[in-house]
Amino acid sequence: MILGAITDTARAGLRLQRIGYVFMRSGVWGMLSELGFEMGKRGLVLTRLGRPKTRPLDSVFGRQLAHTFVELGPTFIKLGQMLASRRDIVGEPVADELRCLFDSVPPIPFRKIRRILESELGRKTVKKNFSAIETKALGSASLAQTHRATLTNKEDVILKVQKPGVEKIVRADLFILEGLARSVHILLPKLQLLALFQDFKQATLREIDYREEAKNIDRFLKNNSSVFTKSSVAFPNYVPELTTAHVITLEPMHGVKLSTLKKGTTVARKAAAKSLEAILEQIFDHGFFHADPHAGNLFFLEDSGGIGFIDLGLVGQLEPDDKRRFLKVLFAILKRDRRGLAKSLYALGQASPKTDPARFEAKVDKLLNDVKAQGLDKTSVESMVSRLLTIARSEGIFIPNRYVMLLRSCLIIEGVAKELDPGLSIAAVATPIVARSLFKSFNPLRLFRRS
């Protein structure tokens, strides 16, 4: 164990040098210096407070940061993807530039993938179970690469293989980033970045273990096996004996990717409504949902008219109390109860000793006045959510990441649905699902009682 700890520390030290070099070469280092950051023994450390003197956090910074994250690899790409959904932290210009991190990355040579396969499954097992594996990658992301394959029983499958060295790099990066998060937390506890990082760390560690994805598939299949499930959905089965921490063998999804559908067509409109319905049901009925439902991860199943989901490593989970709290927020919005909305939002998070409930309520009230003046139809839901999170953060209210993941999932699927069918009524699809969840969660008559 001692030798392992020494090796891990040495690896983290070398990785830290690499991170510092890339940040300086890309020009991001200079911008971070203006913000008060310096390189410490365990990573970037905030050494002075105050606003930047010359360059603000803007789109130029965001563009350079995105390029830097790509060069630094999987952990930083994942970090950038998370920050892209947290406009309340990095601002809209930076978040917009970080969206490019959701794009695919160039594939690595198949010989490296083959080496991982044989290392994980064993050379004899690979030879015995696979009659053919396509050398051309089907898809490539920051963590993994997929290839079509055929089993010896003639069954077609998809091989998802983690790229070489990913786990070691990710663990070293998380060690370094945790040092940065702890340093910032000491100086600026109000930002609550340490809690945010811990959520990111746990989610990332689960994503690099494909046995966790297999467990997620099992749970999705179980949740959707009920006769009371309204949406028609499908999830890929996997082959347990050909699945390890770094390899998962999946059945292919037979359908059309939503990203390839033509906007406004009959098929696109059906897919829009069904995909939105499926995600909302996962959230409000099951409390277990796909946290990255972009158009590339969803298929329209023409035979059944349902939706198929792939890439199930990143999921969100809500406890019954979580759902009740969030439903109170939605109900306050439906009732146009401003005080109730502020109160329910306040209860959704974790307040600090310095939080002023009255001031928080006033800021929420001002936001709703702005939305009313602008017109709800002209208000971006994403912008409104971002402002709500910014208000909460400014008042020292920490919104747990499970709620942020829920909001992010809703925003992503809303964007997908609107892209396929601009005329779709989100409210028409959501209302019966939310109403059903309300009746299941608690007696709705209690909500009409004023406290």
| Cα Rg | 23 Å
How many helices? 18
| Structural domain count | 3
Derived structural class: alpha+beta
| Distance, first to last CA | 57 Å
Major sheet, described briefly?
A: 5 strands, antiparallel
* Annotation, overall tally of beta strands: 13
Helix content: 55-70%
Low-pLDDT stretches: 41-45, 49-56, 444-451
Question: Strand portion, in percent?
Answer: 5-15%
Mean pLDDT: 82
Query: What is the global morphology?
Result: globular
Task: Explain the overall architecture.
Helix 3 (59-72) packs parallel to helix 6 (92-98). This protein folds into 3 domains: 2-103 and 169-207, no CATH class; 106-164 and 209-252, Phosphorylase Kinase, domain 1 (2-Layer Sandwich); 254-451, no CATH class. By secondary structure, it is α+β, with helices and mostly antiparallel strands. It contains 18 helices and 13 strands. The radius of gyration is 23 Å and the shape is globular.
List keywords for this structure.
alpha+beta, disordered C terminus, 18 helices, five-stranded antiparallel sheet, Phosphorylase Kinase, domain 1, four-stranded mixed sheet, 3 domains, 451 residues
How do you describe this structure in short?
The protein is of the alpha+beta class. The protein is built from 18 helices and 13 strands.
Question: What secondary-structure arrangement, pairings included, does this model have?
Answer:
Layout (H helix, E strand, L loop, with lengths): L1 H25 L1 H7 L2 E4 L2 E4 L12 H14 L1 H11 L2 H4 L1 H7 L11 H12 L1 H7 E4 L5 E2 L3 E8 L4 E7 L3 H22 L5 H15 L2 H14 L9 E2 L12 E4 L5 E2 L8 H21 L1 E3 L7 E4 L4 E4 L5 E3 L2 H15 L3 H11 L8 H18 L6 H14 L6 H20 L5 H16 L10
Parallel strand pairs: 7-12
Antiparallel strand pairs: 1-2, 3-5, 4-5, 5-6, 6-8, 9-11, 10-13, 11-12
Helix pairs in contact: 1-3, 1-9, 3-4, 3-6, 4-6, 7-8, 9-10, 12-17, 12-18, 13-14, 13-18, 14-15, 15-16
